[in-house]
Amino acid sequence: MIHLFIFLPLLGSLLMGLFPRQWRDEVAVAVTLLTLGLGVALWASGGTGLFSVPWVEALGITYSVQLSGVSLVLALVTAFMTFVAVLYGRQRVENPWVMLALVLSMETGLLGIFAARDLVLFYVFFEDALLPALLMLAMFGGPSRMRALVKFAAYTLLGSLLMLLSIIGVKWLGDSPTFALADLVQHPVTGPAQTWLYLGFLAAMAVKLPLWPMHAWLPDFHEQNHASGVPDVMGTLYKVGGYGLFTFALPLFPDASLELRPVLMGLAAFTALYAAWIAFRQTEWKRLLAYAGLSHMGFVALGVFSMNETAVIGAMYLLAFQNLYTGALFLGVGMLQERVGSLDTRVGGVMTQAGALGGLTMALWFASIAVPGLAGFVGEFSVLLGAYQVSPWLAFVAGLTTIAAAAYALNAFQTTFWGGRPHGAVNVRDLRGAEWPVLALPLAVALFFGVYSAPALNLIQPAVRGVLSAVGGN
Amino acid sequence: MLTVPDVALAPLLPILIVLAGALCSTLLGFWLPRRTLTFVNLAALVLSGVGMVTLWNGAESSFAGGLRADNAALLLGLTILVGSALTLLVSLDTAYRARVSFPEFDAMLMYAVTGCLLIAFSGDLIVMLIGLEIMSLSGYVLATLQQSRRAEEAGLKYFLLGAVGSAILIYGIALLYGATGSLTYAGIAERASGLTPANLGILVAGALLLLSGFGFKVALAPFHQWTPDVYGGAPTSVSLFLSTVVKVAAFAGLLRVFGGALADAPGWQPVLQILTAATLIVGNLAALFQTNFKRMLAYSAVAHTGFLALTLLGQPDLGGAALSYYLLVYTFMTAAALAIVAALQRGEEGMEISDLRGLYHRHPAYAVALAVCLASLAGLPPFAGFFGKYLAFQAAFQNGYVGLSVLAALSSVAALVYYLRPGMLLFMPDRTPAREYAHGQRPATTLALAVCLAGITVLGILPNLWYGWGANPDIWRVLAGR
Known about the structure:
The complex is a heterodimer of chains A (about 475) and B (about 475).
Chain A: H1 2-15, H2 24-44, E1 51-56, E2 61-65, H3 69-92, H4 97-115, H5 119-128, H6 130-140, H7 145-174, H8 181-186, H9 192-208, H10 217-224, H11 230-236, H12 241-252, H13 254-280, H14 285-306, H15 309-340, H16 350-353, H17 355-368, H18 375-390, H19 392-417, H20 435-451, H21 454-471
Helix pairs in contact in A: 1-2, 1-4, 2-3, 2-4, 3-4, 3-11, 3-15, 3-20, 3-21, 4-5, 4-6, 5-7, 6-7, 7-9, 7-10, 9-12, 9-13, 10-14, 11-15, 12-21, 13-14, 13-19, 14-15, 14-18, 14-19, 15-17, 15-18, 15-20, 15-21, 17-19, 17-20, 18-19, 18-20
Chain B: H1 13-28, H2 34-55, E1 60-62, E2 67-69, H3 71-94, H4 103-121, H5 125-144, H6 149-180, H7 185-192, H8 197-218, H9 226-233, H10 236-261, H11 268-288, H12 293-312, H13 316-344, H14 359-362, H15 364-378, H16 384-398, H17 402-425, H18 443-461, H19 464-470, H20 473-477
Antiparallel strand pairs in B: 1-2
Subunit structure (chain B): NDH-1 is composed of 15 different subunits. Subunits NuoA, H, J, K, L, M, N constitute the membrane sector of the complex.
Enzyme class (chain B): translocase
Protein name (chain B): NADH-quinone oxidoreductase subunit N
């Protein structure tokens, strides 16, 4: 069933062209819904064990997949947000089936990333998620997309090629028979070589995460994407860096992680604060959201790098649910753009005519800036709590971000939704039809997991404990 | 006392079949139309391939080891045949427009293939040299066949520089013979390890001259300067042939000489390392600044030479396997990309990169096919180019060339940018009129493309289908025939 769960979206996107044109959107919705259903069924049956068969035997590459713990949570959120994005995309994008097909094929890449337990397989899925993202940007992007494209691709590939070298190095220097994670962990690399390999791995993850100073592709990528926000939803799911660090880097490079911990934590805390500060100055919704996401990812990185149990749990929690509200906010921005015709934050007075849109957006922003009772709070608070035990000062610096976040979010929200409606402005209609569930469903989930976090924590906690006990962190 | 030479026909058979095709084209060209001959030649290639498959694991040799049909030869030979068949298929549709549609084109092509196979099957330096010369001379003619200033210039450049390369190569062979007293790979390999210092100097000098000579043929920097002009100036189907088949053959020779005969000889590895680094940098950076798509592909071929050379720096058992896989994949990718250029170009100078804008909306199938080729050339999974690059990295990395591997990774980023730009332009909206050659039937090109795309995807998802054959290290330990 796990294989079906991973490859069903890809299959759907390949077969979509066979259906008559008017049915293709429905097919996409059905496929994502079915995928989500499969995911929930997997969850209900308690995740899956490790499935491993040789893939390229001569090279020691295996097809090893497993969905449990953290990876299951992330995969479920991915499947859920893909469904939401497709729901919105089909009515918002002109001639949508090509984009929906790309969304579906990207979903397979993302689910594969979370399921992979073999480093080469992980790399393959990692790159496979890249291709549809590039195509979406190329086909539906804004006027200066070429620059964004080249920047995005160059950063990503620079990182991932260095990671590939690290992967080869880990297997070869550790003398492991295969690239499967379990084998590699049993044949560790020690000494200075481990640090170098960790840095190679980090190069890829820091780009994806992204971590300052490897973040420059992010704002351009989001700004130039299609205004509906559908590609951005997939883009936010793209932040697999935190997950990769947790699942692969910590078990494979424990000594190096410990050795570089202060530097990396500092970098992460700086990223969080720096991004929040830049976000405050943005006047374009998508760039603002991009920097807000970057700030969240700084938190995630802080949690992972601190190697403290509470913090890592918080980081994974944040990583999973940040997708929900940031993704939904991107879609909300798409709705706003459809109504007022621009992404500028200085519109003014939208609330008077589109109350539901404003209200839902505001609630989602609350989730994003970690207001208690919403999912973001659980994550950010745990990260700070854990990081404080490792490095109080860095936790303090990162903690300042929460204040900055409130400032940029409320400021932007206020200039767009409150204030006077300018003279001669177009009439703005409120939410209708499928737009309601598109914003309300993610909010409901964020609210649920903000109040009752046990179902997710039950999955995340044992996984984190397992990793950290093997690593020897505190 | 006259001794009868040891002539076994079985290992010669694949080469003889191809030669028969060439002779047919030469003679029957007076009576039969060219297209018929092309089909005859395609059949000859298929027969030759069948012959090779039946020889698998036979390890037969002829002329006292001068010609060896061992598994390494067969793997590389099959790759040569694939590239040649693709060239013939593409030429069915485009040779007429390129004004090279006469039987001599086919004849020359088949002679060149004969030479290529001789190199792959060679067991001593003389057979290798004969093959190389047959291949090169036919190549010069092919590049000039079209009556145009550009083609003549390309051919002349190719001839002059190729002749210099051959001269250096022959001089290197002479020095090797002087140092070791043997011309067979096995003999050289045997004697290379126990030489007096004076002879060792001659051996190293000979090895370096051979390396430069081969450097001309495979376009290693700084011997690559003819490549963009020749690939860009020759008719596109000829560029396709030169950049795939001829390169495969030259690499087969390199592998035989440096992976086999000179595997234990000192001195050439550091030089090859420097040449590889230079090739990676020059090829990738120069491709970044091209505006003509065909020229860009020419520079990308130079860049791929760098990756291919990386495999030569690995241990022969890993490097040889990597090389055989990469060469086949490279043939598919490059042939497909150039086939699309050949099908869509208006003139033989190819098309500008900006002309590709919006191709998806005019010719969706070609655009998707080209995008797949570009993704594979850039080394993105799940396409086969990824495993090619991976294997090349692995071979060099595991032999201790970590710095070079990192450099290769960095230069790949430049590669990604220049493959990405046309790749993404294909899918961007465009409202200006089409700039492609819109007429004509292209069934043969379509077939060739289908083969290439199937190869790129299937070998990317299941690399074992081909790599499983080549992964056996025993194949590559006997490169010199020991």
